[in-house]
Structure formats: C-alpha cells, structure tokens
Amino acid sequence: MTRKTLITGGAGFIGSHLAARLKAEGRRLILIDNLSTGRRSNVEDLLDANCALIEADVAEALTDRTLIDGVEEIYHLAAAVGVKLVVDDPAGMITNNIDQTLTIIETATDIDAALLIASSSEVYGKCPVLPLREDMELVYGPTTASRWGYGMTKAIDEHLAIDYHRRRGLRSVVVRLFNTIGPRQVGHYGMVVPRFVTAACADKPIMIYGDGRQTRAFCDVRDVTRAMVQLLAEPGCAGEVFNLGSTRQVTIEALADLVIQHSGSTGGKRYVPYETVYGADFEDPPHRLPDIGKLRQSIGFEPRYTLEQSLEELIRLERQTVVVEGKASP
Ligand SMILES: NC(=O)c1ccc[n+]([C@@H]2O[C@H](COP(=O)([O-])OP(=O)(O)OC[C@H]3O[C@@H](n4cnc5c(N)ncnc54)[C@H](O)[C@@H]3O)[C@@H](O)[C@H]2O)c1
C-alpha cells in the first residue's frame, strides 16, 4: 500500500517542490493550501487521483476527518511568510502561524502521524554569534519592531512540537530553514533572489536594501526538500531541531553582481535605505549563517547545487516566462 502524506502549504514555493519529489517517489498526497501566497498553478501538473489539493485554511480543511484517514506523515509548511507580509499584518501573521501549527500538531498526535514542522532562521532573531547553532540563545528586538514577531511565532511552534513529542509521544522534527531559493518563489513578499532575477532579466536596476554588505547563505530548494524527506524518515531525528541551509556566505551586493553577471543585465544596481521599504523601526540582522554539523551527522547532508547553478536555472526560467507571458519588449 502506498504511503499517504499530507503537506500543508503544499501549493507554496517549497511545498510544491516537496509535493513533486514525494509524488515521484510514488506517495499518495493531500495538499492543503489557502492560496494566500501559494498558487494552484504551482501544483496543477501533479493533481490526479493520487494527489489532491484542498483549497482551504488548514484548520478548516481538517474538520473533514476523512481527509486524513490513513495519513502516516505530515509536512507542515503553511505559514504567513515573507518580511513584507509580516511587517504589513503582524497580528494576522501571529494568529495564522500559531493557530494552524497547534491544529496540525494535535491532529498528528491523534492519528499518530510523523510530523515535520518548517521553522525558520528567523528564530535566531539578531543573535550575533556565527555560525548559528541549534542550541544557541535566541535574541530578539523590542516588540515595537514588528519583524521579530515572525521568529517568535516560529519559536512557539517549535516549543509546541517539542512538548508534544516529550509528553504525548508525537514523532515531530523541526527544521530551521535558512534562505531557500528555486523556481516558483515569488518576489512580492520581500524575497531577495526572485526580486533580483526579475529586475536583471528586464534590464532594470537591482534594488539593494541597505548598503549590500549584509550576508546570507542560499540553499537550492532541491537540496532542502531532499533533506526534509530524509529527516522525517529517520526515527532518531524525532524531538530534534535542525538547521537546514547552505554554509556559503555571500554579501547581498555580491549576490546582485552574480545575478548581473549570469544574466548579462544592463540595468545595474541601486541602493535603497531599509526605512524607505519597511518603515522606520525596521531592523535586519546583518548576517545569517547556519552551522549544519548536526544535520551532517544525522543524515550526511551536503548541498549538491551551487549558488551559480541555482541562479542560472532561475534566470533561464525567468526569460522563458517573460517570453510566454509576452512581457518582453518588442
Ligand atoms: N523560503 C524560505 O527561504 C524560507 C525560510 C525560512 C522558513 N521558511 C518556511 O517554509 C515554509 C514554506 O515557505 P515558502 O517559502 O514555501 O513560502 P510560501 O508562501 O510559498 O508557502 C507558504 C504556503 O502556505 C500557505 N498558507 C499560509 N497560511 C495558510 C493557512 N492558514 N492555511 C493553508 N495554507 C496556508 C500559503 O498560501 C503558501 O502556499 C513556511 O513555513 C516558511 O516559514 C521558508
């Protein structure tokens, strides 16, 4: 009998790649997504008798218990995502992220399904020590600066997953995702790589927020989903928290240069103060770099795709989309 797997946020960026991977492995899939930032078109090609998309909030969809009959594994990716969305509607984001997670944790416990929770490097807040390790202290700014609320909701999600593991035997594993990149990620919510690629392919200036000396590490979504599947399949990982990302640190300015170099863009780059984009109380951690020692030890993880390979593919796809949608200048 083929295994039945539930993915919340299954029509989102990472969720759709995870769905494609699991479908290729022969799983039966239920995807739940309210399409707030996800899109039906992300998974349209996958939908058939063995892969259903339920367009609803997680909690609402789960009121139909027949839906989860026989589900053995759950990947919980549904969340309000993206710095812009988080700053624009903090209360909505907080309610969404915590309520849906508690619902899914209770459901997984009831039906004894293994559960992977997608947490975030935002949990570290502005922890100044690098690389960031899972057992470090978490450091947040004041509650008047709304962006920290996102990391806090993810930290609460982690507490819930760990508590249910310890006291109720839930087989939960938490992954703290660092910057993940790949096709179908959209730029409108503040994601840097799609913003840069779209601008460069249109020969428009790449807008760098701040001075560009801040650093991030970008991991290809194919590496990320492979690790997620391995972690959930490994019984020894239950009750644990793992960083998941690349260890190659690049400045945002160097990222812009790479995008320009690989796309041949003539648009150049411009610098925009953070306050202009996110308002006066905005703080951005200057650096984010994971220590992935625990992940290496548990599942032997090493990223297979370089940043250049990921960018080249994204640039190729962006050019195709522009041609198909007729956005290209005459
Ligand atoms: N992409 C990254 O770099 C990154 C980094 C850190 C953490 N994460 C985490 O990974 C997960 C997936 O993120 P993503 O980048 O694919 O973003 P995404 O916005 O593409 O995916 C989130 C999906 O959840 C759906 N959703 C939101 N609230 C919902 C609800 N109440 N009910 C049903 N569906 C709902 C959205 O429509 C969307 O499809 C999120 O939990 C996010 O916090 C992503």
Features:
7-stranded parallel beta sheet; two-stranded parallel ribbon; 330 residues; globular; binds nicotinamide-adenine-dinucleotide
Distance between the termini: 54 Å
Please count the beta strands (DSSP E, at least 2 residues each).
13
What's the order of the H and E elements? EHEEHEHHEHEEHEEEHEEHEHHH
Instruction: Supply the CATH class of the domain at 4-182 and 219-247 and 289-304.
Output: Alpha Beta
Instruction: Summarize the biggest pleated sheet.
Output: 7 strands, parallel
User: Rg to the nearest angstrom?
Assistant: 19 Å
Supply the CATH architecture of the domain at 4-182 and 219-247 and 289-304: 3-Layer(aba) Sandwich
User: Looking at CATH, which topology of the domain at 4-182 and 219-247 and 289-304 would you report?
Assistant: Rossmann fold
The hetero molecules present are: nicotinamide-adenine-dinucleotide
Kindly state the percentage of residues in helix: 25-40%
Strand content: 15-25%
Report on the architecture of this protein.
The protein has a domain at 4-182 and 219-247 and 289-304: NAD(P)-binding Rossmann-like Domain (Rossmann fold, 3-Layer(aba) Sandwich), CATH 3.40.50.720. Helices cover 39% and strands 17% of the residues. The protein has helices at 13-24, 58-61, 83-88, 90-111, 148-168, 192-201, 221-233, 252-263, 274-278, 293-299, 307-324; strands at residues 4-8, 28-33, 51-55, 71-76, 114-120, 172-177, 180-181, 206-209, 215-217, 219-220, 241-244, 249-251, 269-272. The strands form four sheets. It has a seven-stranded parallel sheet with strand order 3-2-1-4-5-6-11, sandwiched between helices. A two-stranded parallel sheet has the order 7-10. α5 (148-168) links the parallel β5 (114-120) and β6. The chain is globular. The chain starts with a strand and ends in a 6-residue tail after the last helix. The model has no long low-confidence stretch (mean pLDDT 94). Bound molecules: nicotinamide-adenine-dinucleotide. The site of nicotinamide-adenine-dinucleotide has 28 residues, from α1, β2, α4 and β5.
